[in-house]
Amino acid sequence: MSFSFVQITDHHLRAAEGDLIRGLSPAYALRAVARHIAGTVAGSADFIVSTGDLVDDQTEAAYGLATRLLGLTGQPAAAPGPLLANAEGLHDMPFYCLPGNHDDRDYFFRRLFGEAQARPLLNARFEHEGVQFVCLDWGPQTKALLHHETLDYLAQSLRSGQPTILLMHYPVVPVGAGWLDQFLADGLERFWQTVAGHNVLGILCGHLHTSYERIVDNIPVWGLRSTVFQFAVQDEPLICLEPPHYRLVTVHKNVMTSRVFEVPL
Question: How many Cβ atoms from other residues are within 10 Å of residue 18's Cβ?
Fold first, then answer.
């Protein structure tokens, strides 16, 4: 069993393609990242997963822009997908999408996935090549909340014994920056107690707009830069003009490895 997929995160699209955020164009940056993926790793990747904050201003127009910009097509699929991305050289690339704290849950579920009504939390799973991908939702607020239903869903999913990769917007390890680490959920030890002893290959996160790699109880925990602006890893807030990253993750014989690609803008 061997396959690869791409992680991207925190796109912060606004209502119109020309709209800026902090002087930057999130639409231009996401197009550049999609084009780089198409020209570099798309041939070896089975799908793309976005780990939250697809939009910034929580409007229906922003989700319309995301749909057009990524060329999302195909029959409506229950969240997290897959939809099919057809943009910037991508052709029918399966695209999974999780909500982040900036995502309006009503528009996210109805506008992207055609679901009749929003769900309060997106706890869901899908399978690929014998690996279970479990998507966990910590809520729509800036600081993560460890919801009972999310923890229960995680515990239920892990009982299968399948090799599992956890996908989420919020981080589950500190990065050593006071203002970023405050966003971690309280009581996070309950999450790690639930994960302990199970066949978890790795954990992929967003939210912090910075790339990092940690090992906790022999489990890789990886965060990733936003496709638009980045945060400095320091105790006081600081936005950095650093190039976006995306991560190519390879799973081979139940071992997860990755390579981070930097996209010049």
Answer: 9
